[in-house]
């Protein structure tokens, strides 16, 4: 049904008028094994501060019946039910049905292709609970939620408050869950299906993991690591926030066709793509750890303390992204987490912050539709980096003291940015108003460089509006020792303005600005010595110092100051020297991207061959074989190289699929190989791997069929769409791909279908990478003007990236 997006003004008016006492929500899932229906009865008890006044409740499902204090209400319009004649104390009862559980918002039914079993998950951020039942769907109207769920007898049901009372009802069971603490509607969840469950008691916590039955063996493989990480995270956060997680039970549910992960209180939902079908690589293991710790941090930042309105979304997402790296480094085996953050997410943030979608971390949000558009690289990795700088700026001990005070003061309530700034400023003894204005209310990236002023060193700094932000920067002095650099000194400089004196010992062979990566700023080599930077990058002694140098090289590539050939040469040199598994995979991905997407067409084959050679060499290193062969699979340049890869892959189904994708892209015959691999691959999602093989083929008929399935029919789950889309946009197929530029624009009006995660995913992944020119990018920007905010923002981000690629492709060698 048509819906209106809740505005900030409406939310403030409603919050001033009412307070919600509790929700009692009965949900019936018994139609789902054969049908699409989710039936709900939402009973909301709430108080009104002005008896006789009028407001509305959100309900975007089909309303069967609605009463307020036993009085029938008028039908819903625009996803709202008018509540007039309010009493001081009110009981609202709304019976509703959601029939669109295939492509709709809030609730999704997935059918496992392996065995036909049905699973259902719910996910409500930012305001999608209203698509399933009636609620006051805004973050500052928190209340206990008590769920009663009727499901088929063979199903398991999970929700926020853990263990339920289960009653047999013939062919069904009724699951009655205890009321939650006060939560915003978007923090609640129901997941259900014939789930495989594993439980373990660790450090006093009752921990559970769940997945579909066809992935039971993989869940069993990974459960021990997940339980260890969960206990480590709960212990770390309980200490640094001065508040243990208040609930003994903590569940994590891996569901099919889910995008990403969602921080529901006490019951996190994950995409089961995180249960890697092949043995996970080091980077994949670290990613699982960081996502786990990110969602866990939300138990405090988002669930226990919730932002009042979406303008402070960063209080949730940026803090969780910061905290997951902090916790990984301090409490788990993933001690290079900040290095991998720099090698991946932070580089994405630097690009976004220097393009058309740049915005302040804390930004005014007029309505919820606009809020959905800022779940982006500015809010997440830039926000995380800014919070790391804040901890550096006030000192870690003061930061921890401020966090403890924050949760003690605001637990189970709602806050604004100023509440956090006040406690951290008080704990650190600093006035943070200038810091807040510079870092949170100003868009753009600072630029830092070292200059010599006579015999003295000076750090020059400028911000987006002129003067730099308040920040503490590390500067390292290095001396060459053979083919390596050794750090001889490190100073932390508090930026005082455009020019800040730096005291370092004389005689350094190389100076590294932003050493230890403590701030969010782009840098350039002193005196324009690009050659010195390229030579120094692989010689630096740590993953983080090498990463700072690579970040500068990447930034120079995307701004047109460095050719693809020079950038790739540096990245491959760093890979040959790299000792940290945390960054090997991101750098191999970067190398493949540079060769495929940034290189001029005349240089592409040569640079791709260099990536293939690097992958082949790295495959001989113990522990890096799988990662290196994946890179080789992407870059193999001939049928003979694909054949070599297939020999190396042996029985490894994942590498087998990658080899087939590359063979298809090179024009080889793959039908027999696909049929054979489908017959022996136990992965229930293997058909989507087969579709990726078809997508890569330089064949017009296959391109058309894959586009229909992927983009038009959306028969590919969002969790599997990425590899299919990547194969579709294969380099060197410009003539075949050119017609899909216009077809992409035809999709724009409906790309927001299904909610925020599918909207972002499909807008980004389907965006043309080849067969387009700058004129198309201009047309795309104009066409996006009337699209939903999340589509418009994602498209503008993607168009900026491709525009930079086109200019790099046109640049050639210098």
Automatic annotation (TrEMBL):
Cofactor names: Zn(2+)
Protein name in the entry: Aminopeptidase N
Keywords on record: Aminopeptidase, Hydrolase, Metal-binding, Metalloprotease, Protease, Zinc
Gene3D superfamilies linked: Neutral Protease Domain 2, tricorn interacting facor f3 domain
One GO cellular component term: extracellular space
Pfam families membership: ERAP1_C (PF11838), Peptidase_M1 (PF01433), Peptidase_M1_N (PF17900)
Residues annotated as domain Aminopeptidase N-like N-terminal: 117-186
GO biological process terms held by the UniProt record: peptide catabolic process; proteolysis
Family the entry assigns: Belongs to the peptidase M1 family.
Organism: Actinoplanes nipponensis
EC top class, as a word: hydrolase
GO molecular function: alanyl aminopeptidase activity; metalloaminopeptidase activity; peptide binding; zinc ion binding
SUPFAM superfamilies, alphabetized: Leukotriene A4 hydrolase N-terminal domain (SSF63737), Metalloproteases ('zincins'), catalytic domain (SSF55486)
């Amino acid at each position: 049904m048509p819906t209106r997006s809740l505005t900030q003004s409406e939310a403030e008016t409603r919050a001033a008028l009412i307070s919600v006492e509790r929700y009692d929500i009965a949900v019936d899932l018994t139609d789902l094994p054969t049908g699409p229906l989710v039936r709900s009865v939402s009973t909301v008890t709430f108080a009104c501060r002005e008896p006789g006044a009028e407001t509305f409740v959100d309900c975007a499902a089909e309303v069967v019946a609605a009463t307020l204090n036993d009085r029938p209400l008028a039908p819903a319009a625009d996803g709202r039910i008018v509540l007039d004649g309010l009493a001081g104390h009110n009981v609202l009862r709304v019976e509703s049905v959601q029939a669109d559980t295939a492509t709709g918002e809030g609730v999704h039914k997935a059918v496992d292709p392996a065995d036909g079993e049905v699973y259902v998950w719910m996910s409500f951020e930012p305001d999608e609970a209203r698509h399933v039942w009636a609620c006051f769907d805004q973050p500052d109207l928190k209340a206990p939620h008590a769920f009663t769920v009727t499901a088929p007898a063979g199903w398991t049901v999970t929700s926020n408050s853990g263990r339920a009372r289960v009653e047999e009802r013939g062919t069904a069971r009724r699951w009655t869950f205890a009321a939650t603490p006060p939560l915003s509607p978007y923090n609640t969840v129901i997941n259900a299906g014939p789930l495989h469950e594993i439980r373990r008691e660790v450090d006093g916590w009752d921990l559970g993991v769940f997945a579909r039955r066809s992935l039971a063996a993989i869940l069993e493989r990974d459960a021990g690591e997940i339980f260890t990480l969960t206990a480590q995270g709960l212990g770390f956060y309980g200490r640094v926030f001065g508040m243990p997680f208040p609930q003994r039970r903590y569940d994590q549910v891996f569901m099919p066709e889910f995008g990403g992960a969602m921080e529901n209180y006490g019951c996190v939902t994950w995409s089961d793509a995180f249960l890697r079908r092949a043995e996970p690589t080091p980077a994949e293991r670290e990613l699982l750890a960081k996502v786990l710790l990110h969602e866990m941090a939300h138990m405090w930042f988002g669930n226990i303390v919730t932002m009042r309105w979406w303008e402070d979304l960063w209080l949730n997402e940026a803090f969780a992204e910061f905290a997951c790296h902090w916790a990984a480094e301090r409490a788990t085996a993933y001690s290079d987490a900040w290095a991998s953050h720099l090698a991946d997410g932070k580089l994405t943030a630097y690009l976004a912050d220097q393009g058309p979608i740049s915005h302040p971390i804390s930004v005014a949000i007029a309505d919820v539709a606009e809020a959905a558009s800022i779940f982006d690289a500015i809010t997440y990795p830039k926000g995380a980096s800014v919070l790391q700088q804040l901890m550096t700026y006030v000192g870690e001990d003061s930061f921890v003291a401020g966090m403890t005070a924050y949760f003690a003061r605001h637990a189970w309530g709602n806050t604004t940015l100023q509440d956090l700034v006040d406690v951290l400023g008080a704990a650190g003894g600093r006035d943070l108003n200038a810091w807040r204005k510079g870092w949170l209310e100003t868009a753009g990236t600072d630029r830092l460089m070292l200059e010599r002023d006579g015999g003295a060193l000076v750090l020059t700094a400028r911000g987006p509006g002129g003067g730099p932000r308040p920040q503490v920067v590390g500067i390292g002095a290095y001396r060459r020792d053979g083919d390596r650099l050794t750090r001889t000194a490190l100073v932390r400089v508090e930026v005082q303005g455009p020019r800040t004196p730096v005291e370092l010992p004389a005689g350094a062979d190389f100076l590294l600005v932003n050493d230890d990566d403590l701030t969010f700023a782009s840098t350039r080599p002193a005196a324009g010595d690009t050659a010195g930077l390229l030579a120094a990058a692989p010689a630096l002694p740590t993953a983080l110092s090498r990463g700072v140098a690579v970040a500068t090289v990447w930034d120079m590539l995307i701004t047109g100051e460095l050719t693809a050939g020079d950038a790739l040469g540096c990245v491959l040199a760093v890979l040959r020297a790299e000792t940290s598994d945390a960054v090997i995979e991101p750098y191999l991905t970067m190398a493949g991207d540079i060769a495929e997407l940034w290189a001029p067409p005349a240089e592409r084959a040569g640079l791709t061959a260099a990536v293939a050679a690097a992958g082949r060499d790295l495959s001989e290193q113990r522990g890096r074989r799988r990662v290196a062969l994946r890179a080789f699979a992407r870059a193999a340049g001939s049928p003979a190289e694909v054949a070599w890869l297939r020999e190396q892959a042996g029985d490894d189904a994942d590498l087998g699929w990658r080899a087939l994708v590359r063979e298809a892209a090179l024009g080889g015959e793959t039908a027999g190989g696909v049929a054979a691999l489908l017959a022996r691959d136990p992965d229930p999602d293997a058909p989507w791997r087969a579709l990726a093989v078809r997508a890569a083929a330089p064949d017009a008929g296959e391109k058309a069929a894959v586009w229909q399935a992927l983009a038009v029919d959306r028969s590919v789950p969002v969790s599997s769409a990425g590899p299919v889309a990547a194969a579709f946009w294969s380099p060197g197929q410009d003539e075949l791909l050119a017609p899909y530029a216009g077809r992409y624009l035809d999709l724009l009006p409906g790309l927001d279908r299904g909610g925020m995660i599918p909207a972002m995913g499909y807008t980004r992944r389907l965006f043309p990478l080849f067969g387009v020119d700058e004129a198309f990018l201009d047309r795309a920007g104009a066409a996006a003007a009337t699209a939903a905010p999340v589509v418009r923002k994602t498209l503008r981000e993607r168009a900026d990236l491709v525009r930079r690629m086109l200019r790099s492709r046109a640049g050639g060698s210098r």
